[in-house]
Specification:
This protein has about 240 residues and is an alpha/beta fold. The protein has eight helices and 13 strands.
Length: about 240
């Protein structure tokens, strides 16, 4: 167990966006990026920290996109859940090649491919040092993978939820549109909600706030950023 600014970290829930796996592509999975992400995870495991992961599916299909082609929201969300399974299997395969024991658990049952999500079984895998990847979001439409990450983090007793994205901090405005956007090092849950900052969706933030689960926003692009943060390096934005 590692102590970080008074927070004891034994188990983390890592939220990865699907877009992060696409790398330089607009769609799909880039092998080089997948390998880089696996190296990041491996560096955390070597610290003796247990790792659970929730992966998005936006690099393949995002549920809300379905409305553009006449697909109703519920069906589109289920399609997005299946995209997260594809990403989870790809990440599992890459981690296993590095000798990291991994299990994928899905909120939608598909036993020929992955395990069904069972909280006690997931916790036992983590205790044995295996990485557990949670696929299919919550298994319900209208809930994002951000919400799934918050939910699973609390179910398996994670000490912190780390969202690894393509940005290094939360900003007070979109840095792509405003060159004077200011970095935010620490912010409260309620301020994130009131200011409508795009950290995670409001359901996920509210869930973390109600259960006092800290969130850390980090850049996935910086090598060893997650492991460096856990070891005390001043990186990213804390929501607490």
């Amino acid at each position: 167990m590692i102590e970080l600014n008074g927070l004891k970290i034994k188990r983390v829930l890592l939220k990865l966006s699907g877009e992060a796996l696409a790398g330089s592509r607009d769609f799909g999975i880039e092998a080089q990026t997948l390998d880089f992400v696996a190296e990041q995870i491996d560096s955390v495991i070597k610290l003796g920290v247990e790792v659970a992961i929730v992966v998005g599916g936006g690099n393949i299909f995002r549920g809300i996109q379905g409305s553009d082609v006449g697909i109703d929201r519920s069906t589109g969300d289920h399609m997005g859940m299946l995209a997260t399974v594809i990403n989870s299997l790809a990440l599992q395969n890459t981690l296993e090649k590095k000798g990291i024991h991994t299990r994928v658990q899905s909120a939608i049952r598909m036993e020929q491919v992955v395990e069904p999500y069972i909280k006690r079984k997931a916790t036992r895998h983590l205790e044995k040092g295996r990485v557990v990847i949670f696929a299919s979001g919550t298994g319900n439409p209208y809930f994002s993978t951000d919400t799934a990450a918050a939910l699973r983090a609390m179910e398996v007793g994670a000490n912190i939820l780390i969202k690894a994205t393509n940005v290094d901090y939360v900003y007070d405005s979109d840095p792509r549109e405003n060159k004077d956007a200011k970095k935010i090092k620490e912010i409260s849950y309620i301020d994130v909600l009131n200011k409508n900052l795009k950290v995670m969706d409001s359901t996920a933030i509210s869930l973390c706030m109600d259960n006092k689960l800290p969130i850390q926003i980090l850049s996935l692009q910086e090598k060893n950023s997650i492991a460096d943060f856990i070891q005390g390096k001043d990186l990213g934005t804390r929501v607490s």
